Amino acid sequence: MDVLEGCRAFVGVSEHGGFTQAAAALRVPQPVVSRRVAALEKHLGDSLFERSSRRVTLTPFGADLLPSAQRLVRLADDLRHDADRARRRPFRLAVPAVCGTADLARLEAEARRADVHLDLVPAGPAERAELARALAVRAALVAVPPAEGVWAVPLGLAGTAGPATGVLHLESLRPGRSQITSRSRVVWLQPEDDVPHVRDRMTRLRDAVGLRPAQVAVAATLTTAVAEVLGSSDLLLCSPAQAAELGLAWRPLGEFSPARGYGIAANAGTDAERLRTTLWPLVARCLGAAR
């Protein structure tokens, strides 16, 4: 039997002076209260109440057990209250600083519907990893090679000129003989992509197709990179979602398919599992990850 619900019915009848009154207070049908008290009496081995047509009174056995039943009910209520409070405790999560405000707001709002109260901390790749190591957050979305990650975000090249169709080969940016002294087009990497599995592959490709060293560069900030692109024919390495947000025409890279990979660094396995399951589609949409 359910001892807790039996004790709750027992305490209710005692405090409200009858089965009907207890049922109203507990918001259950009166027969349910009667069955629970009867089951508890059977479980404990004696009667808890003297029943008559006029009133219900405690037996000596019931009077002896009432304080313990009251303590059990109070403890159960305290446990439920503590559980509710623990579920509402903010889940501090370090996320990429490139995530847009609207995307982060949607992630936070939809996570609440799943009973997860996120406290989002936008940061760059190195800072996110450090926040996780220092236990300053419960979890962090850390940069990893796409094959090792939980989420993968495709990257391509975006600019202000040209159609957003087909692929764009990096070798097409190779300066001709007439451009020896002029400025060549630059592919700008934002700080989020200043990680080996993106940066190093881009620089190796740059060298392989004969571009100048300065033609693949890491900007100090995303704002700086976008400003360079908006003011010239330069290109930004970014995701399709970022390009759409910035009003740039995006095309995939022809030589290979770069991607951001995101894994989870968490203090507790349960937090990591929640991100992999309940929150996976919400985080994927916020990152612009392939589903």
TrEMBL record:
Family assignment from sequence similarity: Belongs to the LysR transcriptional regulatory family.
Transcription listed as a keyword: yes
Keywords on record: DNA-binding, Transcription, Transcription regulation
MF GO annotations: DNA binding
Domain HTH lysR-type: 1-59
Lineage: Bacteria, Bacillati, Actinomycetota, Actinomycetes, Kineosporiales
Protein's name according to its UniProt entry: DNA-binding transcriptional LysR family regulator
InterPro entries given in the database record: LysR_HTH_N, WH-like_DNA-bd_sf, WH_DNA-bd_sf
